[in-house]
Design brief:
Elements (H helix, E strand, L loop, with lengths): L3 E8 L7 E8 L3 E6 L6 H8 L7 E6 L2 E2 L5 E4 L10 H6 L9 H14 L15 H13 L5 E5 L7 H16 L3 E6 L2 H4 L4 E6 L2 E6 L1 H8 L2 E7 L2 H8 L7 E5 L2 E6 L2 H8 L7 E6 L3 H17 L1
Parallel strand pairs: 3-8, 3-9, 6-7, 7-8
Antiparallel strand pairs: 1-2, 1-4, 4-5, 9-10, 11-13, 11-14, 12-13
């Protein structure tokens, strides 16, 4: 059974739609990512699940009960840390439990060790790097022994190595049975997760495993190499069957969901000047396609 189910969840502060009829199931374990551009509604969705704001419509259930339950913790994009030691920050989530001093110290040191900050326990949190601050926020949330961890853009502004280390920690915790819902706009992070949900302008566009989402888009994609690819992209833009022509490194990905129309359009361009090769559509191809389709629907 899914621990969390959202049925028709809406949030319209001041009459402005921010979340629109969100239907979503979040599995009992593993990592689900909410992927979308800035302003899509990702953070609002997480705050709603955390109980920091109430939806204006629809309902949220946790195994049939009203959610969120006591086993929910959230890590914000810019974690709010005390102007105190790393240890004091990590122990904050345990304060309501009124533990004996020895037990408080044992559990706090345990979570700091788990996220690689045990040797910084006595340091001021102000001295930590961006990646270390995020790991401290994760330790503080994890100390509460939640069943669900909500992470809002947890690696924004964090260097590549810190991002990799952070995600390694997330996967280790997920392997121990924790459930994660993570908001991000990084495609490579979405590809690390078990399930994905695409959101744009408050609407859920697609959700499922990476394989399910790619298959459901029914995209045909051609990879093109050659000279002056920007010129080729301009020539293809808006032609029948061509829904996107996007640079991927030193290649151009040309995609559409009508394979016959797409092939007919590109036929005159399949000359010696370019090398064309049909490839499997990837998650990024589908994401760009979804965003473009949503923009067209909004404009119509």
């Amino acid at each position: 059974m899914f621990p969390i189910r959202l049925d028709g969840v809406c949030f319209t502060p001041g009459g402005r739609p921010v979340l629109i009829d969100i239907d979503l199931e979040i599995g009992a374990d593993g990592i689900t990512v909410v992927l979308g551009p800035n302003g899509a509604g990702k953070s609002v969705l997480l705050r709603t699940l955390a109980g920091l704001q109430s939806p204006d419509g629809g309902r949220i259930r946790w195994n049939g009960d009203v959610a969120p339950g006591p086993g929910t913790a959230m890590v914000f994009q810019q974690p709010i840390l005390l102007r105190a030691s790393v240890f004091a920050n990590a122990a904050l989530g345990l304060k309501p439990l009124r533990l004996a001093r020895s037990e408080l110290r044992r559990r706090t040191q345990g979570v700091l060790d788990r996220v690689g900050l045990a040797d910084r326990a006595a340091d001021s949190a102000r001295l930590l790097s961006g990646g270390e601050r995020q790991r401290l926020a994760l330790a503080r949330a994890w100390a509460m022994a939640p069943r669900l961890l909500l992470l809002d853009e947890p690696t924004a502004g964090v260097d590549p190595k810190a991002r990799r280390d952070f995600w390694q920690e997330i996967h280790q915790l997920a392997g121990q049975g924790l459930t994660f819902l993570i908001a991000t706009h990084y495609m490579d992070e979405a590809e690390r997760c078990h399930r994905l949900a695409f959101i744009s302008k408050g609407r859920l566009l697609a959700n499922g495993t990476e394989q399910e989402i790619v298959a459901g888009a029914h995209l045909t994609t051609w990879a093109v190499s050659g000279s002056d690819l920007p010129k080729l992209a301009d020539q293809l833009h808006g032609r029948p069957g061509v829904q996107q022509a996007v640079a991927f490194g030193n290649r151009l990905h040309v995609s559409g969901d009508n394979a016959a129309a797409l092939e007919q359009t590109i036929a005159p361009f399949r000359t010696g000047e370019y090398e064309w090769r049909q490839v499997e559509s990837g998650l990024e191809d589908v994401f760009i396609h979804q965003m473009g389709t949503d923009a067209e629907d909004s404009a119509s």
